[in-house]
Amino acid sequence: MPRLVLMALMLCCSVLAAQENIGQVDFKNFTYPLSGHLLGHGSLEWLDTPAHPATNRKTIHLVDGSQLTKTSSVMVDGKECGQYEGFTFESVSYGDVIGDGKEEAIIVLMYHSGGTQTTNYVYVYGLGEHGPKLVAYCHTGERSDSGLYSVYARNGLLLFELLDRTRASGECCSSGVLISSYKWQNGVFKLAGPIERRTLPPLQEHPDK
Fold first, then answer.
1. Distance (Å, rounded) from C-alpha 15 to C-alpha 78?
2. pLDDT in tens, 29-67
3. Domain boundaries in the chain?
């Protein structure tokens, strides 16, 4: 009996510890909400908001950072190469982007169409009373058409660097990015300040870093 009590206490303590630190959440094995169309995006759009209500609601369930399904295969140099459709975990970073004095997690997922088209989804999670709590999420554009280059927290703001379509060199690449800052106001992220431009070094033009 004492052993069972000890195990229960250890489990309780581990759950509480996870809830105290967003960095301990395993976002590679996690379920995310998803809404709207997967392709055809030409700009950043916040989802499940009054301005963009949920449509075609579904979920993404990652296991070891992946939710991919093989769609076809091609032969390259005598070897079979599979083509896959679905989502993969790309990155997670941390910072206080809603002004609550606590860090939120900024997660990037990539949607693979099974062909050359890709789209990124960005999720912001904080910690609620019962664990990770979704703050907001969005999709960006596709590849050189406002595709995601980088996203991060800075000085209480959430910054996106999106590939500049006016400086595109083909569908995959651009020599510049547009930097937009978002501030958390009245329960949503709102654009704060002018959009800035930055030129990329030649070796860093491709969005899939």
1. 50
2. 999 999 988 888 888 999 998 778 888 889 999 999 999
3. 24-204
* Two tokens, residue 53: 């209500």
CA 33 vs. chain centroid, Å, equals 11
Q: What is the Cα 30 distance to its own chain's centre?
A: 13
Which two tokens mark 153? 């927290």
- Residues 90 and 121 sit within 8 Å (Cβ to Cβ): no
The segments of the chain whose pLDDT lies below 50 read 1, 4-18, 204-206, 208-209
34-70 CB burial, b ≥16 within 10 A, e <16: bebebeebeebebbbeeeeeeeeeeebebeebebbee
Give the contacts of 119 (CB within 8 A, at least 6 positions apart).
Answer: 38, 39, 41, 110, 111, 139, 140, 141, 142, 147
In the prediction, which pLDDT does 19 show? 53
